[in-house]
Specification:
15% helix, disordered C terminus, 136 residues, globular
Length: 136
């Protein structure tokens, strides 16, 4: 079976992740992730654009996400991607970019401790000591 996999880096916005439970009691946490990019326009002007993703986590990952990720958190998400169309209240067709996360990595944990941290590349290229500090 083919699946559309995605890896994205962005910031949790515009609010904290929202934890809840399925009808059978399974934890689910959802959040919006914004990925900003800058490009040059035709006449050289700087244009900023953003892509928004709806990320959903389940089970233990949902519990961990709800406890550790907050609005503004810089995260790396690995998951399954799908695009979904829906109608807004005015009847206009909209598209939602949805990700069911297989893993979420908090990239700014050291910033919360008063130290600077940045994205160091894919997880397999990061130092083992960095990965041991991650709660996921």
């Amino acid at each position: 079976m083919d699946t559309c996999k995605i890896t994205i880096v962005g910031r949790v916005q515009p609010r904290d992740p929202e934890p809840r439970f399925t009808a059978d009691g399974r934890p689910v946490t959802s959040f919006r992730l914004v990925c900003n990019r800058v490009r040059k326009g035709r006449d050289g002007e700087r244009l900023e654009e953003a892509d928004w993703f709806q990320v959903t986590t389940f089970g233990r990952l949902a519990e961990t996400t709800a406890n550790l990720v907050t609005k503004g958190s810089h995260v790396l998400v690995f998951g399954r991607f799908s695009a979904r169309e829906w109608q807004d209240n005015e009847g206009k067709t909209r598209t939602s970019l949805d990700v069911v996360a297989d893993d979420v990595m908090l990239l700014d944990q050291r910033q919360r401790e008063g130290q600077s941290a940045g994205y160091a590349g894919p997880p397999d290229q990061q130092a083992d000591s960095e990965l041991e500090d991650l709660p996921f």
